[in-house]
Amino acid sequence: MNLAAIPSYFPKLMTAFPVTIRITVESVIFSLLIGALVSVGSLSKNKAIAGIAKGYIAFMRGIPTLILIFLLYLGLPQVMKRIGINMQGISTITYIIATLSLSTSANMAEMMRASYLAVNKGQLEAAYSVGMTFRTAFRRIIFPQAFGIAIPTLGNNIIMMFKETSLAFTVGVIDLLGKGRAISSASYGSNRLEVYIACGIIFWLCVLILERVTKFTENIYTRGRKQATAK
Amino acid sequence: MAKVELTNIHKSFGDNHILKGVDMSIEEGEVVVILGPSGSGKTTLLRTINFLDAADEGSVSVSGFKVDCKKHRKSEIIELRRKTAMVFQNYNLFANKTILENVMEALVTVKKYNKKDAEKAAIEILAKVGLGEDRLHFYPSQLSGGQQQRAGIARALILNPDVILFDEPTSALDPELVGEVLQTIKAVAQTGITMIVVTHEIAFAKEVASRVIFMEGGKIVEQGPPEEILVHPQEARTKEFLNRIINTNA
Fold it and tell me: Of A1, A183, A205, B67, whose CA is between 20 and 30 Å from A110?
């Protein structure tokens, strides 16, 4: 093993970094949107809707991400073909974003549900008692508190998803790991270990940054809200 | 015209029939104290007035605005709630807002005041309940229960409601803080605003109430002026309840 060679792979690997970032950012956005919808469903008084939402969460949390990738990438085109829809034009990166959005949306939904429930219900009643609509109460009272509660979990969910983007190479996306594989196969795998270590270091540094950003956001957001602010 | 009028209010939670046909008519400026053992439905009755718990049957009317409990629209409930205000047992202040912001909140979001006017009005009201400039920018968690409850009273007062509903306002307080909150409520009562108070404070009822209602088993058992109900109750159940309370307090 040639440890000294590891840094030399960083520049080449980083050319694929924007792909990893794109997958992460788009998956975070879509998982939040789907998660919001599912959490509303899981909190619904309608038992059928709540049941569907909880079933969705149970399924998405129970299935390994890699299997979900294969289900979508290999299975979905076949199913769609049966009903006359051709999915050949869809890029592999889209499948990855769809998979990560779906699998992470379950965690996002649970995060939102728990954070919403953590805000004591009496405050909603108080908001009602002074004549607010649910919408106003949610926007002004509930959401700001639920968001503060959710920040650490949100950061954790994003970090887990960020690491799972590394599964993208399995269907041929040239993300960080895909690039690493390409580099190592160009030299017939002789430097495989060094390249993957270099990949790992990049992931690890990114996670460190994400952790810092989470902590920082939490501090900024909760500053003054519960601490003394006598002016 | 009665300020608050309840007709044939029924309410069940599952199989538990809490309110069994309550009628109540309250005139402007009355201070009505509702007494009764726990489980008698007094808090639930209070909560049906502003539809925090919608009654299954009957009607609620505040200042002539009548809502049928069986078929009500959301907009009707909101209008009804804008005629009332409530003070809660656990204060229920908005934890993400300072005391000043708590009191301003509804003026800005519901009554559409501009911020400056709302702030001015809030500072004025807070001073009236004994929360001075030095407390305005504190968050609820930084205040004592008594201070929180007084802020809760200010939040209700600032809306200038037709009636204020007090749901056991001193039950969650440390004993030494009960006095200051009762004093504040008493001062509010003297302004002539219509009030309905659910409480266990008999002495307070005696001093402040214009009428006492005794409830048990989801029904009104007896009502009248405090000296009548509290000193010479007619019903055996009222006597029994008062004896129990007085004996445990002594």
Answer: A205
ipTM given for this complex: 0.93
Using alpha carbons, list the distances in angstroms from residue B189 to A19, A126, A181, A218, B138: 67, 21, 79, 44, 27
Q: What is the pTM of this model?
A: 0.86
CA distance A52 to chain B (A): 25
CA distance B92 to A107: 30
Q: How far apart are the first and last CA of chain B?
A: 41
Share of chain B above pLDDT 70, in %: 99
**Size of chain B in residues:** 250
Residues of chain A with pLDDT under 50: 227-231
- Ramachandran area for residue B143 (φ above 0: left; ψ -120 to 50: alpha; else beta): beta
DSSP B131: -
CA distance B219 to B230: 18
CB-based contact A214:A151 (threshold 8 Å): yes
Mean pLDDT of chain B: 93
CB contact under 8 A, B94 and A225: no
Amino acid at A99: T
pLDDT digits (tens, 9 = 90+) for B121-174: 999 999 999 999 999 999 999 999 999 999 999 999 999 999 999 999 999 999
Task: With beta carbons less than 8 A apart as the criterion, state whether A133 and A124 touch.
Answer: no
Strands B16-26, B31-35: pairing kind: unpaired
* pLDDT given for residue A87 in this prediction: 84
* Number of domains composing chain A: 1
Chain B positions with Cβ closer than 8 Å to A:
50, 52, 78, 81-82, 84-86, 88, 90, 92-98, 105-106, 109-110, 134, 137-139, 141-142, 152, 155-156, 159, 165
| Domain at A89, CATH number | 1.10.3720.10
Domain span holding position A153: 3-230
Q: What is the pLDDT of residues A18-77, one digit of tens each?
A: 999 999 999 999 999 999 999 999 999 999 999 999 999 999 999 999 999 999 999 999
**How far, in Å, CA of A58 to CA of B84, rounded?**
43
